[in-house]
From TrEMBL:
One of its GO terms (molecular function) is G protein-coupled receptor activity. This is G-protein coupled receptors family 1 profile domain-containing protein. InterPro entries: GPCR_Rhodpsn (IPR000276), GPCR_Rhodpsn_7TM (IPR017452). SUPFAM superfamilies: Family A G protein-coupled receptor-like. PROSITE patterns: G_PROTEIN_RECEP_F1_2. The keyword rRNA-binding does not apply. The chain crosses the membrane at residues 40-69, 81-103, 123-141, 162-184, 204-230, 251-272, 284-307. It comes from Hypsibius exemplaris (Freshwater tardigrade). Keywords: Cell membrane, G-protein coupled receptor, Membrane, Receptor, Transducer, Transmembrane, Transmembrane helix.
Length: 363
């Protein structure tokens, strides 16, 4: 979730990444950049494209949540609750975090944001992104434990363990977001086009924030899924008919591809800034093309689940066809009352034989 616009003077160069802008000099004057008409339309198309992408992504994430909740094979997956949290965070990003990030960019100086609003921006916008990263890392570690030490995995399936695994990403994300909120290393201030993160002090804190927010969770996720896919693929060769192994491999493969897509949205801005510095800081179209990736990750992520996993395909089909609703309706359909026959001298023997057969069936 990021938007970078070329607001700079001759003595300032901005190092841009997914969450922070900070300057090479400590004293910087923020200068509003006046866009020519062509660049204005570039910006307008960018905003419309991001909002439409995230609107479609919000619908896709809702469908994915329903598929996880109502489709049996997905609901019974060992990491289903943790996956639901990841999808819910993506839904929050597509409906709240991304619009709050990109709309002020288009409105520009017409929308004057308060310093208080910008101060707490990390807590209600970028907190979701950091939490999403670590929620994915927790899922990866959870599946790694199930693969390497299945005999101990029952401990991590307990309700108390699942609650702890759900809380851990939020604890890390809140701690990570408190640094810019308190002005440690960086802070958010009102700019001409939204809230602008700037460096406030020791660059070591900024570097530590980058490591904790980006590099550490991506390394954890990547290493875990490489091991899980390798071990599960090896086990499948020995037990080709194992349905549980096939399901584990399929879901892990889908999550790994989602992780690769995540990396594609994180690192291009950093690579572009360091490799194509002049073009990146002067070409608005190039910036917006790169920035669209970061603002569209949570919206496009459901496409990878649908395209790479038959389980998710069947779950999504069950939701779209309302099969879960029909199954629930048939399960609660009223049962016609049973008419009991009254024994008479003519049918007493038949009734006795009938009751005997009924008792046998109940046993």
């Amino acid at each position: 979730m990021n938007v970078v616009l070329p607001e700079m003077n001759n003595n300032t160069q901005y190092l841009q990444n997914e969450k922070y802008f900070y300057t090479n000099s400590t004293n910087t004057t923020m200068v509003s950049y006046l866009y020519p008409s062509f660049q204005y339309y570039q910006l307008l198309f960018f905003i419309i494209g991001v909002l439409l992408t995230n609107a479609a992504g919000a619908i896709a994430n809702v469908i994915l949540l329903l598929a996880m909740a109502v489709y049996g094979p997905l609901r019974k997956s060992m990491s289903s609750v943790l996956l639901i949290q990841c999808i819910a965070i993506d839904l929050y990003a597509t409906t709240i975090a991304v619009p709050l990030t990109v709309i002020p960019v288009y409105l520009g100086p017409k929308l004057q944001l308060s310093s208080t609003f910008c101060k707490f921006t990390p807590l209600f916008i970028y907190l979701a992104y950091s939490c999403g990263m670590y929620a994915e890392a927790v899922v990866a570690v959870h599946r790694l434990i199930a693969t390497l030490i299945p005999q101990r995995f029952h401990f991590f399936k307990k309700k108390s363990s699942i609650i702890c695994l759900l809380v851990i990403p939020w604890l890390i994300a809140v701690t990570h977001a408190m640094f810019p909120t308190l002005g440690l290393g960086s802070k958010f201030v009102p700019g001409s086009r939204g809230c602008i993160p700037i460096q406030t002090g020791n660059s070591a804190l900024v570097l530590a924030s980058l490591v904790v927010g980006y590099y550490l969770p991506t390394v954890i996720i990547g290493v875990c899924y490489i091991i899980v896919l390798g071990k599960t693929g090896f086990d499948l060769r020995a037990r080709n008919g194992s349905h549980s192994l096939r399901r584990r491999f399929e879901i892990s493969r889908t999550l790994f591809l989602s992780f690769l897509w995540h990396c594609l949205t994180i690192y291009p801005p950093i690579i572009a800034k360091s490799t194509f510095k002049t073009q990146f800081t002067t070409d608005l179209g190039f910036q917006l093309a790169i920035m669209w990736l970061g603002n569209s990750f949570c919206a496009i992520n459901p496409v990878f689940f649908w395209a790479t996993s038959q389980l998710f395909q069947k779950g999504i089909q069950a939701v779209l066809r309302c099969q879960w609703h029909r199954a629930r309706t048939s399960a609660v359909a009223p049962v016609a009352p049973i008419q009991r026959a009254v024994a008479t001298p003519n049918n007493a023997i038949d009734m006795e034989m009938f009751n005997g057969r009924q008792n046998a069936y109940r046993l």
